[in-house]
Amino acid sequence: MIGLFDSGVGGLTVLKEVAKRLPEYSLLYLGDTARTPYGNKSPQVVASYGLQAARFLVERGARVLVVACNTVSAVGLEAIEQAYPSMPVFNVITPAVEVAARVSSHHRVGVMGTRALVASGIYQRLLAVHGRYQVTAQAAPLLVPLVEEGWLDKPETKRIVKHYLTPFKQAQVDTLVLACTHYPLLKPLIASRISRRVRVVDPAEATAIALEKWLTQNPETASTLSKGESRLYVTDLTPHTETIARSWLKRTITLERVSLD
Amino acid sequence: MIGLFDSGVGGLTVLKEVAKRLPEYSLLYLGDTARTPYGNKSPQVVASYGLQAARFLVERGARVLVVACNTVSAVGLEAIEQAYPSMPVFNVITPAVEVAARVSSHHRVGVMGTRALVASGIYQRLLAVHGRYQVTAQAAPLLVPLVEEGWLDKPETKRIVKHYLTPFKQAQVDTLVLACTHYPLLKPLIASRISRRVRVVDPAEATAIALEKWLTQNPETASTLSKGESRLYVTDLTPHTETIARSWLKRTITLERVSLD
C-alpha cells in the first residue's frame, strides 16, 4: 500500500491528487488530528511525530511512504529515512522545488509556508542545487485556521491573504509555492491577488506526478502494491473534522480513529 | 505547590492573576505546547491530555490543582477529580459562572469559547443551578491564532471580533464571559465593540479570587504549600513560544521543556 500522512486533514489535498492520478492503488492515510497543527512546533517535536506516523503506516502495510505534510517534509524527513532505509519515501518539498526551479522565469521564488518550514530554510538549500535563486519565504500561520474554519472567501481572509502576499509582491517573485497543505484551498483567492505572471505551484500536484512517474519507472515495486479500497485514519475524530474532510474530498468518506501510543 | 496547566501558553494569563493575588506561593505551570491547541479536539482526547498534565504536576509536588484551560475545565474535570479524589481541583469555569450569575442584570449571558467548550453546554448547565438564564454560546476559534500571532489590534482582528460578537449583540446579552485563556488579551478590543452596559467577565481573575478565598478558609492546606520560586514547564519550546510568554507576563521567564510520555 501507499501510505500518506499529515499533521491533520490538510494532507487530504495530497491524497486527492494521488488518487486522481493513481486511482487503482489502495491508499492508507493518517492525519494526526489529536496533535494538529505542527506548523508552529519545534523541529524535534515535529520529527518525532512524523516518525510515529511513518511507523504506524508501515505497521499497517505501507510499502511506499508519502510525507504529505510540508512541515514534516522540511524538518522530519531524515529521521524517517534513517528508520526505514530501504523504503521509498516521498515528500512534498522536493517535487515542488523541481517544478519551481523549472517554471521560474527570473529565478525569484516565493515560498509561503508554516513558521517551522520557513525557519528550516529548506527551499533556499534545495533551490541552490538548481542554480542561483532569490528566495523569499514568508510564514502565513493564520491561513491554516482560516481554511479549517471554511472561511475560504470571506473579506477577512482576503485581507489576511493580502497581508501575507506583501513581501512576495515587494520581492517581485515570478513563482509562488504554496508550501502548506491547507493553502491550495485558497489558491483562487491567492492567484487573484498577485500578478497573473506569477506561477503558483501546488506541491500536492507536483508530488502526485513524481510518485506516478516513479511507479512507472519501478514496476517491480508498483506490482507489489495492493489495489482496491483506501483507508483513512485520524488520531482524533470530531464532527468538525469529518465535515472538513468531506467538503475537501467532495465525497462521503469514513474516518477511523486510532491511537499512536 | 499550586499546580496550574493549560493546553499551551494561554494559561499564563491565569498564572499571572494567581501570582498577583498570591505572590508568596510557589507555582508550578505546565503548558502542553507540543499538542496545543485543545479547543477543536474531542472531549475524549482533551480529557486524556488533561489527566496527563494533572499527573505531571502532582508528581512534581502540586498539592492544589488549577485547571487553567477552559476546554479541559469543560470536558476533562471529572477524570482528574476521579484520579485525585482528595486533591483540591480548581477550574476556570465554576468561578466565572458565579460571577456571571451575580453581575448579570437581565439574566442574558453570552459565552465566547472554544468549539469543544461550546459543544459541552457546560455554561448552560452550571448557570441553571443559579436560576433561569438565557445563554448564548459562540465558538470563536480564530481568536486563538490571532492572539498567538500578536495581532491584538490589527484591522483584521477587529473585523473577526466583530463577526463573533454579532450573535451576542442580537441576543442582547448583558454579560459576556471570555471563556478561553487567550481572549482576555483581546478584552480592550472586545469591550470597545459591544455596549458599555455589557459586563465582560474574565475567568482568570474570578479563578484567582476563588483560589485566594479558599486558601484563606483552609489555612491548614495553605500552610503546607511551599513558598518561593515558581517553575514553568512546556512540552515543546520554540523561540515563538518564549516570545509570547514573555510579552504576556511582561517579564523575563525561563520555560523548561519536559515530556509527558
Description:
Two copies of one chain form a homodimer. Chain A is 48% helix and 17% strand. Chain A is built from 13 helices and ten strands. In chain A, the strands form two sheets. Chain A has a six-stranded parallel β-sheet, with helices on both faces. In chain A, strand 1, helix 1 and strand 2 form a beta-alpha-beta unit.
Topology:
The structure is a homodimer of 261-residue chains.
Chain A: E1 2-6, H1 12-21, E2 27-31, H2 43-59, E3 64-67, H3 70-75, H4 77-83, E4 89-91, H5 94-103, E5 108-113, H6 115-120, H7 122-130, E6 134-139, H8 143-148, H9 155-170, E7 175-179, H10 187-191, E8 199-201, H11 203-217, H12 219-224, E9 231-234, H13 239-249, E10 255-257
Parallel strand pairs in A: 1-2, 1-3, 2-9, 3-4, 5-6, 5-7, 7-8, 9-10
Give a brief outline of the structure.
The structure is a homodimer of 261-residue chains. Chain A is globular and about 45 Å long.
Model regions low in confidence, pLDDT < 50 over at least 5 residues of chain A: none
Average pLDDT across residues of chain A? 96
**How many discrete structural domains of chain A?**
2
What is the terminal-to-terminal distance of chain A? 22 Å
Largest sheet of chain A: 6 strands, parallel
Fraction of residues of chain A in helices? Answer: 40-55%
- The first-level CATH class of the largest domain in chain A is given as Alpha Beta
Let me know the number of strands of chain A.
10
CATH architecture of the largest domain in chain A: 3-Layer(aba) Sandwich
Oligomer: homodimer
Structural class of chain A: alpha/beta
Describe the strand arrangement of the main beta sheet of chain A, using strand numbers: 4-3-1-2-9-10
